[in-house]
Amino acid sequence: MTALPTVSATQTAAPQGLSLAERLEKRYADKDAFARHRDHNMSKEVIAELGEKIKAAGTEYIYYQIPTMQGRVVAKVVPAQHFERFLRKGIAMHRPAMADLQTTREGEMVHGGVEAKEFWALPEAETFTSIPWDTTVATIWCRAYEPLHFGDIGGSVLPTDVRSLFKITHEEFTDRTGLELRSGLEPEMTWVGSMADVIVKDGASPAYQVENLERMRPVYKKIIGYAQAMGFNMIQGDYEDDGQIELNWDYDQANLTADRMTTYRQICRQVARELDMQASFMPKPYNGKMGNGCHHNLSLWRGNENVVEDGRVELHATELAKNAIAGALKHTPGSALVMNSTVNSYKRFWDVGQYVTMDLSWGLDGRDATMRISANGRMEYRQPDASVNPYLSHTYLLAAMDDGITNNLNAGEPMGPVSDFAGRTVPRTMGESIDAFEADKYLMNTIPSEVTGVYLDIKKDEWARYCSTLTEWEFTQYWASIP
Ligand SMILES: NC(=O)CC[C@H](N)C(=O)O
């Protein structure tokens, strides 16, 4: 198979001493990015290879798709026979699509409004995948660019394309440190419907009970089957709480994991449709039950060596891993708006005894830490929930770990006070999270301002919509009781 082209040109020769922000800025200033991608797409090998795949799979339609700032997927459907034309010119879309065409309470459409310019998105032919529930349809991921006719920026990468953002951040990290981020996600989700009726003894948990898993056999079998057909290496699954299951696929290069997470959600929706059930990644559907987390299991690799471990048998983290952990913890308040992206996300933290912590800590195999070494070589970041946009979460985590590694931050001892930032807590509401996001100057300066600007517009509006909504709880509490 032809290799995917990098998004940004290799810059190992870039002057040392530049901050991550300056380095990313240089990469985004590259106006040849579109042309490089198109040249790659126009090569004989890429055209031939995609043509063969389409023929072999019997593809009639292709979704040219791209993830949005909120982790949804937008696409155009095109009859497969036009693939060569689309390799060359890609698709064009209204820019606010990157923000799901979200309109604020004041009636302003985020990311530019109706008058906003188009963006162009070129397909990555190598990502062609048939949809197993209807193999006449296939998907191809695209990368978005500023149109060539935009004089000073035409041809550069569109900053609000979060998939490219993570790729560029990762390429930058790898060029400079020689390290690659690999990750495995643990997406938990809640199912509702007859097959999700739970059996539980009073006072006990339904977690791991094979009887509950067995009731959901059609669900996990369909999900695993579709995922395998789409190239996932599915490794295990379990039942966790009422109607809640978690299915895992093998860790991989973090870019691929983020794509798979996005596809996994699409698979689950399809399975829910087929079984006439409901499936939700809402972070906290029930009080007194576990929330839907999406723990990120992270490792850093130099070639084939995992530098998070050093071969000792006892649970441990290398000095480099401790620096990375310190960076992740330091920026946990500032990135919570990404890791916990909904109003509902914060309810997951308030419910005590449900394996989630609001304190900033790292530990070994206990589940009461923000980050733990669940097995040697693996840093499990437990903060994110199932609403997370995996492209943004990995971008923010990489930037945070980069700070920890570059500045030699100190994570202290496992479950001890984290000396470099003792006393800091995780935001407890989305409102606090918005403040912490804006207060984290390092992250604000590092991630392109277009991204943080649009993201804040969306999240501030979401918080305002929530704050301005009367709830049933208020009536129960106050209607009759106010003297
Ligand atoms: N498996 C577990 O440790 C439970 C995690 C918990 N569901 C969470 O919200 O993160």
TrEMBL record:
The lineage of its organism: Bacteria, Bacillati, Actinomycetota, Actinomycetes, Micrococcales. Belongs to the glutamine synthetase family. SUPFAM superfamilies: Glutamine synthetase, N-terminal domain, Glutamine synthetase/guanido kinase. The keyword Ribosomal protein does not apply. InterPro entries: Gln_synt_N_sf, Gln_synth/guanido_kin_cat_dom, Gln_synth_cat_dom. Keywords: Ligase. This is Glutamine synthetase family protein. Residues 162-483 form the GS catalytic domain. PANTHER family: GAMMA-GLUTAMYLPUTRESCINE SYNTHETASE (PTHR43785), GLUTAMINE SYNTHETASE (PTHR43785:SF14). PROSITE patterns: GS_CATALYTIC (PS51987). It comes from Yaniella flava.
